[in-house]
Amino acid sequence: MKNRLKVLRAERDWSQAELGSRLDVSRQAVNAIETGKHDPSLPLAFRIARLFDMAIEDIFDDGED
Hints:
Elements: E1 2-3, H1 5-11, H2 16-23, H3 27-34, H4 42-52, H5 56-59, E2 60-61
Antiparallel strand pairs: 1-2
């Protein structure tokens, strides 16, 4: 699944570790999501969306348009 997480994080000048701390996940989990190796759980996707004050669909793209 493609996502904008890395761009959104960089716009705020947050490290992967800092984003992980804000989301209560590891830096490795943030890296895995950013690189598309792992899709976030639905609760985590909601936490990410709330943190960035965006809709889930504006952050994650499943490629089905």
